[in-house]
């Protein structure tokens, strides 16, 4: 803090800090989707943009990260909620791949908030994603993400096998 009463957050992105301040005053921020109400569904919010435009998915990761850094739990939850709504739209494109990179670059291994959301979205779209060279690059670049996706796949496989065994037991038990 300087003598003028100003606080300088030099290491933080000014737009992200602006969103944090907006949240502190209004309990929301604009992530670029045009929807500030977390209950509003936004079609194609993770879609293509003009060069230099910030992607809503990435914006929410950045806000989540700054909320973690400054210990603003409610903002962190809000950013995760907004991010989750966008990820749930099942858009798998360049913005989704950028979001995976941002999540795995900017969050701690133990912070499951956004990591579980992108892993679940990727798992739900694995067949489509495996045909996309950019997704393969993300898997190669972020081995930790690839391992978590594999763990989720193995867990779901185990659940399916257990359910099938239960159905078989019930079918033959009179």
UniProtKB/TrEMBL annotation:
<protein>
    <recommendedName>
        <fullName>BTB domain-containing protein</fullName>
    </recommendedName>
</protein>
<dbReference type="InterPro" id="IPR011333">
    <property type="entry name" value="SKP1/BTB/POZ_sf"/>
</dbReference>
